Every structure is written in C-alpha cells, then in structure tokens.
What we know:
globular
Amino acid sequence: MARSNLSNQNITEGVIWKQLLSFFFPILLGTFFQQMYNTVDTIIVGRAVGTQALAAVGATSALINLVSGFFMGLSTGVTVIVSQTYGARDEEGVSRAIHTGMALSLVLGVIIILIGVLGGPWVLRMTQIPESCYEDAVLYIHIYFAGSIAFMVYNMGASILRALGDSTRPTIFLIIACLVNIVMDIVCVVWFNMGIAGAAIATVLSQIVSAVLVVITMMRQPEETKLRFSELKIHGHLLWRILMIGIPGGLQFITFDLSNLLIQSSVNSFGEITIAAWTAYQKTDALSWMILNSFGIAATTFVGQNYGAQKYDRIRRSVWTCIEMNCLAVILTSGTILLLRREILGIYTTDVNVIDTGAQVMMWIIPFNVTFCAVEVFVGAMRGTGYSIVPTIANILCVCVFRIFWVWAVVSQHHTLHTLSMAYPVSWILALICFTIMYFRGNWLRKPIQAGEPIYDD
C-alpha cells in the first residue's frame, strides 16, 4: 500500500478557525452559484413569462430537491472516505475511492434520469399542483432531469476535490457555469421566447459545462490523485462502505425534501399567488441556508481529515468554532433579509399580492433560522467520522415525521398559511434539542483507527 506521497493541505494542523473559513468561503460561493441555476430561471421566468410560469417552476422545486438531494447525499460517502484516507496519507485508498466515486456518479446519473422523467409527472399530481401549471411543470422537469449525468459528475468530482483540500476550483467552475446559465436564459427565454423549456435547457447546458471542467481538472491532478478513465471501477468493498455512509447521508437530505414536498403540497392548495410567494421566499432565504449548509460541509471535510490523522481533540474544538461562526453569519444574513424583504421580493415579481404574502411568510420563519446552525455542524462532524445512521434516524423523526404530523394534526384543523409556516421553526427547535443531547451523550467520536494501518482496504 502506497503512502506518504500525498501533499499536506494543512487541515490537520494550524489555526482552526482560519482553516475552516478557508474551506467555508469557497464552498459558500460555490453553493451560491449552484443555487443561482434555479434562481436565475425563477427571476427570468417570473418577469418575462408571468406568475403562472413562476408558479410552475416553483412547484417543481421540492421534487427536484428530493431526487437530487438523495443522490448528492450518496456522494457524501465518497467524500468521507476520500478525506479520511487522505488524512491518513493512504495513497492507494484515495485512488480507489476517487475512481469508485466517479464510476458511481455515472450510474447514479442514469438512475436520476429514469426517476425524474418517468416518475416526475406522477409526483407533481400528488402535490396537488394547479391544473393551469401542470403541463409547464412537467415540461420543465423532463428537460431538467435529462441533464442528470452532468449534474452527478460535477457534484461527485467537486466533492472529491474538496475532500482533497481544493475548494477553490470547483467554485470557479460553478461561477463559469452560472454565467453560461444566465446568458442562455436570456437567449432562450427572452430572445427566442421558449418559455419554461428555454429555462430548463439553459440549466442543463450550464451543468454540462461544469461537469466537463471538473473532469478535466481531475485528469490533471498529481499522479497519486489523478483521474484515469482506464481505472474507473466500482470496488465492491469500497462501494459497501460508501453506501453505509452515503445512504444515511442521502436519507438525511431527503428527510428535509420529503417534508418540503408535503409542505409544497399544502402550499399548492392556497393557489397561484401563494405558490409564487412561497417560491420567492424560498429563493430569497436560500442565502441563509447556503451559509448553514456550507459550514456543515466544511465540518465534514475538516473532521474527516483530522479523524484520519487521529487528532480527536482538534475535532472537538473545531465543532464549537464552526458553530460560533455559523450562528454569527446566519444572524447577520437573516436580519438583512428581513429588513429588505419587500425590496428583495420585488426582484422576482411585480405582483403586489405576491410580495405581501412573501413578506409575511418571511417574518414567520426567517427569525428562527439560527436555531438550526448547531444541528448542521453536529451532523457534518458526525458524518465526517463515518457515523451516519443514528443522526439520520434523528433527522427523520425530528424533521420529516414531525412535519407530517404537524400538517396532518394541526394544519388540517387550522388551514392557514401561518400555521403551515410554523412547521419549520418548531421542527428546527426539536432537532436542536435532539442533536445537542446526541453530541454530548452519543458515541459518535469513536477511535477505531490503528496507527500505520489503512482505514479502508479491499
């Protein structure tokens, strides 16, 4: 087994908060531009095509996030193994994980296409989407999911590069892809008047660009971390470990999206104005959640490498440093959004009713965003050690099951948008209590690694 040729990215030594921020900012910027794919579609469609088209795009968001989120969650298994083997200086283990992950991304991309194209229309019907929006929404998801292979290849490759300590280049590629998306949106939607189809085509083309860029970069990596098409292979033993970590990670993503799909179904029952307002709120508040998620991703990579290097005290200190920075950033961001909420909503639509409704929803939900900061970091840290099953069960109970209960027991009796909106902050507070107990009482920071031995070996 080859060792010691891997370059040290200094994640396992030095000032913790500086290193976390060096990961956080590129991840945040990358997440921002990834979110811009759908946001640009939403803005251009809402202003150039109309409220009905905006509602159609918004009604697909929960489905797209549900499918894409689960398969992106699977990729976290690769991220964890790459970061741990990299931190342990296990050259052969890193190479096997990289090639298994990239081969797996191709398979997952095909699966997403089949699920999205064949099952998408049925799911949209289940969410009670208004008939006036249905055909446009189906057209959008058919085209969107056709680009799933490129979507998975980029996200898998970007996750691997970040696990190796490179969070800058994946971000640059996303910026380039986002610019391509904006240009193609203008060309397809505004110039050629292609409506919903044009917005979806623009997104797919931009995803292809990002996938090509990340593959070229991985092929030019140093020899020990280089992607070689001739070595693309799914190693059975590694696949099992990837799935043991990744499936719970995917389920964690999906719990939020399942509950959001249920919430979206309830939102759809209030009509086009509310659907459009809810869509604009979600796109606006996405910045706060980009920050939350980016700190969680940074914690996973940071903890993964330090776990491989057997620096357990450093892991504990990094968790609290990450939580403090996360809370501060989210408070500042959420406060700014609340102060400028009407002006921001005006970017998406000129409909006063939509703006009024969106502003109300923001006041009911956004002040509670900070309650989820610690949860995101706790989960990211636990995942970095390979401890995924118990946190997933906790999230299913606190988020998915609780929101299902809330909609069934509370919203059904008090069918108002305010009652529906409160499902979010109440579930966040419940999750915070649960994960705080788990952090202090749970056996998540185990120490099974023996010095001088590989973490993962076939």
